[in-house]
Amino acid sequence: MGxxxxxxxxxxxxxxxxxxxxxxELAHDSxxxxxxxxxAVSKCPQGHGKIKSPMCCARDMTCSV
Length: 65
Description:
Layout: E1 5-7, E2 14-16, E3 27-32, E4 38-43, E5 50-52, E6 55-56, E7 59-60, E8 62-63
Antiparallel strand pairs: 1-2, 1-8, 3-4, 4-5, 6-7
């Protein structure tokens, strides 16, 4: 896993995210739902949790990592 830099495919805005508990950069990952589909997430490398990928221009932002 690497640094999670998410970019909007419409306006090209980019964001980096950090964990508010420890300050670590969130890493790009994915989870598999019960129906087998994958969802992009950013997670704390120290185990403090994960969030779904951010949105911009009403679409999920993408991460090249």
